[in-house]
Amino acid sequence: MKNDIPYRVEHAPAYASLVLDVPTNQTVLVEASAMAAMDVSLQMQSKIRGGLLRGVGRMFGGESLFINEFTALGSKGEIYISPGVPGDIAHYYVEPGHNLMVQSSGFVACASTIEINTQFQGFKGFFSGESLFLLKATGQGDFWFSSYGGILEIEVSENYIVDTSYIVAFEDSLNYNVELIGGLSFNNLLTGIFGGEGLVCRFSGKGRLWIQTRAINPLLNFLHPFRPVSND
């Protein structure tokens, strides 16, 4: 896999952390609050990426308004990056004509040559129960994304179906539509409500997609009965 910035992923897939060796006088962009440790040669600045309107869009999409910039001044520097949710980290090299769509909470880090934009999904996102925004990575350079659970890469050649809560990222060469599994009918609606299977994303075309081995909502449902409750 091609990359410009030397990196390694440690403790995957359960508690993955990303380690970047930032070359001298180069800059990397990192999700706010994800820096765990770094060399003293790295200087940090917090900036709004893509303008105020896009920043506000990220807030509504569950993303931080700010992205931190780390620049290696005078000598190369090492930085440890830890996503907020335990899981895996994957790498993708963005090139012109090969853009990446990532779930709104999946951004970890990227080269400064990457442009990150929010992409409104409209009713696709609303009815899927997911965030209304995807992140679109364009330009050329390294991009790292994360998930809850392990990450599996799937090569799509025609059609493929994924539960909406398991989608991590996909190449924009793929088309997608959100639909009720099995089609729209009363029986399928009951299956979705009582069987735990409901809305899925149907991908078509050729390209790669990445899914996560776990979804966080079932974990939250499992933990819900054990939550502390007030006696008042």
What does it look like?
It is a single chain. The protein is mainly beta and 232 residues long. Helices cover 14% and strands 47% of the residues. A hairpin with a 6-residue loop joins β1 (7-10) and β2. The model is unreliable at 51-65, 126-132 and 188-196 (pLDDT under 50).
Topology:
Layout: E1 7-10, E2 17-22, E3 27-31, E4 35-38, E5 42-48, H1 52-60, E6 66-72, E7 77-81, E8 89-94, E9 100-103, E10 107-111, E11 114-120, H2 123-128, E12 133-139, E13 141-146, E14 151-156, E15 159-163, E16 167-171, E17 174-180, H3 186-194, E18 199-205, E19 207-212, H4 216-223
Antiparallel strand pairs: 1-2, 2-7, 3-6, 3-10, 4-7, 5-6, 8-13, 9-12, 9-16, 10-13, 11-12, 14-19, 15-18, 16-19, 17-18
Features of the shown structure:
six-stranded antiparallel beta sheet; 232 residues; mainly beta; Double-stranded beta-helix
**Topology, number of strands:** 19
Strand content: over 45%
Kindly state the mean pLDDT as a whole number?
Answer: 83
CATH homologous superfamily placement:
Mitochondrial biogenesis AIM24
Oligomer: single chain
Helix content: 10-25%
Shape: globular
List low-pLDDT spans. Answer: 51-65, 126-132, 188-196
Radius of gyration: 19 Å
As for the number of domains, it is 1
Per CATH, the class reads Alpha Beta
For the biggest β-sheet, the strand order reads: 5-6-3-10-13-8
Largest sheet data? 6 strands, antiparallel
Based on secondary structure, the structural category is mainly beta
CATH topology: Double-stranded beta-helix
What CATH architecture label applies?
4-Layer Sandwich
Spell the H/E element sequence.
EEEEEHEEEEEEHEEEEEEHEEH
N/C terminus separation = 57 Å
Helices, by number, come to 4
